[in-house]
Amino acid sequence: MRTRTGRxxxxxxxxxxxxxxxxxxxxxxxxxxxxxxxxxxVLRESFDDGWTIFHSFGLLAKGNNYKITDAEIDFLFFxxxxxxxxxEVKGGAISFADGEWRxxxxxxxxxxxxxxxRGKYAVMKYIKTAIKKFVPCSFAHAVCFPDCYDVExxxxxxxxxxxxxxxxxxxxxxxxxxxxDFNKYEIICGDETAxxxxxxxxxxxxxxxxxxxxIMSSEPKIISxxxxxxxxxxxxxxxxxxxxxxxxxSGKTVMALKKAGELAFEGKNVLLLSYNSMLCEKLxxxxxxxxxxxxxxxxxxxxxxxxxxxxxxxxxxRNDDELWTETIPEEFLxxxxxxxxxxxxxxxxxxxxxxxxxxxxxxRMVKPDGWFYIFYDPDQNLFNKTLDLPQLGNSFIMNKxxxxxxxxxxxxxxxxxxxxxxxxxxxxxxAVIEFKDASPEKRRAELARMLENLIQHExxxxxxxxxxxxxxxxxxxxxxxxxxxxxxxxENGKPDIGxxxxxxxxxxxxxxxxxxxxxxIAEDDIRWEQxxxxxxxxxAKHMLCVIRK
Length: 549
Hints:
By secondary structure, the protein is an alpha/beta fold. Helix content is 32%, strand content 23%. The chain is elongated, with a radius of gyration of 29 Å.
């Protein structure tokens, strides 16, 4: 018989962002089946969040002879209204003749339907044994041939349960229909039973798979995406002066470093400027091997260095705003009148942080035939009322985020302007965790609980976590007592065993962390307006926790 094709005009009603819960959240790196890898994304985006879909589900179960057998299931679906379904996936060329199944010419030991059926009964037996009482749940099995579009004359055990390649765009319809066909008594799980089934299935699959493991598996993908983004360098190679506008997480700093390295290896002297001291430390560490050709320094440290070399002693106080924003840039210009540093190229990272009056001195250091690049993001312009950058022609646009997971990006995108997108194969990541309470004591307790869970249970290291706020630590729910349970919060400090750093998100601009906990976000706090939230949320690479007032 011929398998069914999708209904004409059928569409996927589940919009991107309302997707199935996949366990694991990313296709396992050791998956060798191209068919399973391709189907993983299709399933995630074709089903809504009422579905939980396990990939490469393995369990040990006793057969009828009481011997333990190893069941390996390609995909296991669960929905409280439809029940459970085991899906066996066979990619490539599939054929059936003279009672034998073949895949790409190789004989299969068992019928695909038999494999799916055995998996179904293994799950059924596991569930009934684990719960130890009657379970009102329907069980079904199906087979998918994603690379076969015209499947005819199927043997009886496959009739009505095969999903062909032609049906992949409508796979949600096909799966629901098959599960309805198996559920002849119209059994529907209650919420309590559904939660119990998932509790029994998820530990069997995810035991030992911590957030730390997920971060380790996602990190190579983010690094790879960032490297791909640097293809932009080829577009600016013919321009000695350029503005590069990049959204949060687009890899601006990586590209600035790569351009600095490229010019250094051509024998050029490069000045790599930043505004933020923490970002500067990151840049200095990155150029250690070429520091004889690349000077990574903050704008104000550069100013003070040359002012003192010009014979003017200056001892700026931290809270003297006028000295930093007006006097020092003016004295630097006077020093440049006597001697201009010998740089062939000037590269500015996070250019939106530089006040408009700083550019006059920076442009003085660019030779007439020199290189001048400014990387910036107007969505993170926290210090200037208007953004008035040097005129270097139309900006090159980098609008693809390659730092954050998809879950974090969903939280970030509303605070970004323009057509900002995320890389198609960015890791899914863990869902953003949110907590809201008016009580500072309860917010502080929740922060302590989060840290305890992340470090003790999820196996995250202190060095992978940062706590960010909008004010000095004493003005947050942490208050004057930095001790939270087993941990101490260190303001503007470095992580250590039992010690977690706290910074304002303004100070942490240009930096990133595997796990970011934002505290005391408040709608009526000017520091948590759109640009502040954009800057703060984008610091998280793999996991974001939000504690709101």
